[in-house]
Amino acid sequence: xxxxxxxxxxxxxxxxxLHGLISIGTLNFHSLPTEICALQGIAVxxxxxxxxxxxxxxxxxxxxxxxxxxxxAFLIRHRYFTATFKVFQVSVCDRLLPIAIAKxxxxxxxxxxxxxxxxxxxxxxxxxxxxxxxxxxxxxxxxKVLDYSPRGWHGxxxxxxxxDFVDDSVLILPLxxxxxxxDPFLCPSSFHFTRWLxxxxxxxxxxxxxxxxxTVVLRIYNNVAVPDMSGYKxxxxxxxxxxxxxxxxxxxxxxxxxxxxxxxxxxxSTLYPFQVKSLCRMLEKETLVQNLPVPYxxxxxxxxxxxxxxxxxxxxxxxxxxxxxxxxxxxxxxNMGLGKxxxxxxxxxxxxxxxxxxxxxxxxxxxQSVRGKENTRRPGMKSLADICQDTIGQNSLPWKFFQxxxxxxxxxKLSRTNGFFRIGLTYSxxxxxxxxxxxxxxxxxxxxxxxxxxxxxxxxENLFHQWNHELNKHIEPSYLSKLFVSDRFKQPIHNSNSxxxxxxxxxxxxxxxxxxxxxxxxxxxxxxxxxxxxxxGLYWKRLIxxxxxxMSSKSSNLSILCNSIYAERRWAVTGTPTSGLTNLYMxxxxxxxEQSVEQSPSKKxxxxxxxxxxxxxxxxxxxxxxxVKNLSDSTFSTESNLKSLLDSLMVRHNLADVESDLxxxxxxxxxxxxxxxYHNKLSINLFTAVLAVNAVSSEREGSDxxxxxSNRQQLRRLVNNLQLSTFYWTGFQLEDVKTLIGIAKHCLKxxxxxxxxxxxxxxxxxxxxxxxxxxxxxxxxGWRTASMLHEMQYFVQGLPYPFIxxxxxxxxxxxxxxxxxxxxxxxxxxxxxxxxxxDMDDETALTAKxxxxxxxxxxNYWNDSARKDNSKFKKQxxxxxxxxxxxxxxxEDDFRQTRxxxxxxxxxxxxxxxxxxxxxxxxxxxxxxxxxITGEKKLVHNVVSGADVKKATILGSxxxxxxxLASRLVDHQRQGVKSIVFFEFExxxxxxxxxxDILGVNYILYATFIGAGxxxxxxxxxxxxxxxALGGITLIMDLRLASHGLTIxxxxxxxxxxxxxxxxxxxxxxxxxxxxxxxHEVYVETLVLRDTLEEEIYKRxxxxxxxxxxxxxxxxxxxxxxxxxxxxxxxxFLPTEGGESEYASFTALDLNGGENEQPDENVDxxxxxxxxxxxxxxxxxxxxxxxxxxxxNLQKLNAAKKQKASLEQLNSELVxxxxxxxxxxxxxxxxxxxxx
Length: 1236
Description:
By secondary structure, this protein is an alpha/beta fold. The chain folds into five domains: 8-200, no CATH class; 226-354 and 453-584 and 603-663, Rossmann fold (3-Layer(aba) Sandwich); 357-364 and 388-426 and 444-451, no CATH class; 799-868 and 924-932 and 945-951, no CATH class; 953-1107 and 1122-1152 and 1168-1194, P-loop containing nucleotide triphosphate hydrolases (Rossmann fold). It is 37% helix and 15% strand. The chain is built from 43 helices and 36 strands. Strands 12, 13, 14, 15, 16, 17, 18, 19, 20, 21 and 22 form an eleven-stranded mixed sheet that branches. Strands 24, 25, 26, 27, 33, 34, 35 and 36 form an eight-stranded antiparallel sheet that branches. A hairpin with a 2-residue loop joins strand 17 and strand 18 (498-501). Helix 28 (801-807) packs parallel to helix 30 (843-867). The longest helix is centred in the C-terminal third of the chain and has 25 residues, at 843-867.
């Protein structure tokens, strides 16, 4: 007998041994060739199951066999499968003869079965690519029709009824059939793959729509396994005098905490039960070595109850899976506000004495020597002390746990003796005996790594102060030895157990001495350029990256350096990596933003690289082929692959798990609808007019039409400016509006060849309304001045005329009011405080002093305006000017060519820059420093005595939102309330801060143009502000900076200046204040300008339309939403009334229930802002009287003149905390006034 026949005999023996094969499922065939043969065969067992002879059946039908059977025949022929069959006589009814139905059992031959090598050798007669391709295609045919259920496998008796044979649904195929098989229901392969995993029979799904990638990823995140520590419940353990093992520590935490706080030493705060579970799961992951199947090996239970595995990357059946070792660490992905910082600090304290050990997966260099020195043999025999010392260091024994019981001489020796090992620099960790390709690497260079008990924590610059604050708040000061490293500490600061510096110690022994090394991410990334950085010389016990989403950039210095740092345990701390909430009060994972979802799988690839998860770390391309490629729409869906990987990495709870442990104070969120001011209406109507005239003149087609797809960028910019106008807008120039008027008139005059109006009645009505809006704007003196100076207009009552003439921007003659900008009011305030002893009834002397001061003011004002510094935080100037996209030039061309059609074109032809010299010449008086408009007007009724100047009142502003919000913030300062104002547009924040300075309201900025270090200082100042002694304060924050990590629980009032289009961004911002640690109810208000684009945005968000929201409101830009486009195309003009007030008064809802304030008793003091309660429609309102000269403003001016705190002082305050004021808040009616 030759060798080939012997090998084939082994193949047959292996494939015919059913006990070693995998039962997959069953097929049912009718139309059996009983008239040709009796279908007898070789019996398998005594249950009438026989071996299936596919060649014989093919000959019986002369090749006209069903495609499913053909696929089965190929797989049997090449020894991938083996099949048996049994014929059942199924009775349909009593009148008909039974039908013969053959049930075929399908068995897979595992690729790792004993004797598999004979099968592989035998298959070498065919090309490997051919076999792989044909196996995959034929298996897909079978996979779609197999019955995987246990009932279908075991079947029924030989003679049975159709009811016994059929359970719910069953697929019975004809044995003969056409050459081409078409699935009549066109179900995707992924559906049948899921049916296979769930052991289901064949059925047709009711909903066969394909799922998008975002839906799949959303489902994965929502179903990530919650930490289950029930195995430790009631487990017995013996308390030891020494250091408890990780298992004992987890058991004690589960069973004794929080009744026995000694279980978690060093932690002052009490953890919630879900936080304890997360902590225990992290401890378990760090200490329990776990081997799991690689994600692309899917575990399946056969119909007979046997477990097997299917390789979805290279399709094949296995009895045993490929394994990978789970990393010692993972992703702490608790939702925003659930105390991730405290959990991490508790983990560090719980494992304080653990020391990293020599890894068992690295090839170590045998001839070890410390710090590169040659290892020379010591003369004579080692002393017992030396042996003990080396043993303790090399075996990572936790000697520091017994430090209090050791002599100082022993402590000194052990501190200088650190365990170490050496590795090859080219060696890749975590290489195991995978079936994938293995590479042999040469080790020419080596590096010495010293084992330590230190944790390296990398945090964003803006969260540095928060980690410092949380450490001081939650951890005993003396429990951990801490090193804080940041660029801000130019001079080192040392206090008890903490060192603050801007550099890493060059000596490894000094670095190892710290339990925690906290370093800012920018400095950490910069160290990647230094090959000799001490950070590389340690085998850290733990590496933690806060806000781990920053790891998504593979090419970033942070990512590179993290991969070059050697650490025994690795953690990434981040909120759940999904976004796109559809309901603010839903779980954070219930919706996911499309853009984030598309990037999410690739970000997980970088996470797998950070954790060195095999085989993806050594084979980066494997991630896309094994996970991402087949995630949403594929033959073998990899959804379960990604889920199993995330289950092994992520530690998180869902909302339902947390709610039973944690009850946050009530969150109140409402929209406040504000009627637009007169100037709001002018600006919004001008935008509407521009869009209306564009629609008419372009006849709503072609590239001239603003809504043409080619103009998407210009349209987005215009709609963005329209959103700006709901707060305040001065970007239209006078010439722009005049051009718009000319175009509208031209369109109205345009006629057809027959002499009829060219445009229809509806379009002509749009043009007429556009003209009315344009004329109303250019005939308003305040609008004209604001369009040139870009100042917010404030309307002041009670100032003598000389003040208005020298500093004013305009006058309202009928009311005797002066109109000013914020810089002008600030100059007047400073003038008044400096000249408080002057006799202001002497108009001549007063005028002379005012003219002298105003000339210098105006000169500086014009110079500053012309210079247009590089500040990113400023009022609207040329960068915000509205350009009518070349309309002026086009209009002139049209007048020269009367026959040519004229259209508003979106193409931009000019920069729209403003000539400040010409603006100055056109506005200013030839004599004096004031404006012409104030010099031309004489207020007859403006008679104010000198003693009454201090009673000058700011009646309101040109912005309805600004007046409302200022009223709120003044009230909060009185009540000692901290608040947050979120803004999307810097213009709005600029105007708000100007007014708050005028009114003397405390605020702190947190914006992008402020450096990360200064932002950290600002946040610390806000947290430490003593509201009881100093009154309330507001944090004015850029919404872009409010999405991750920040904790601002000292604030209880939150304001959004406008509706936020993406609700996930809004929810993240609210979570800054409404999170763990908040003890008061949080009130959130979203300001919405009534009857404008903002109200439509708010309505669109509030509608319960999941499908529409998924496709529209999840989009990045407002104008991309079809509903918003339809609203804008309605061209709704806001009505204005004759005699309408030009200012929005300072009015807001009363938060105190109608309590009136006591009047000021001392007539010599500055007057504080007062409010009068008014009852309207059963609701109390506060009408505020804002005094121009007030004690709060004077106090801010005096504070601003003081020397700015140095960096050293700020660092000292950060480290030691700001000194608390001893005084408590004085009731308003008892406060002392500033006297003159």
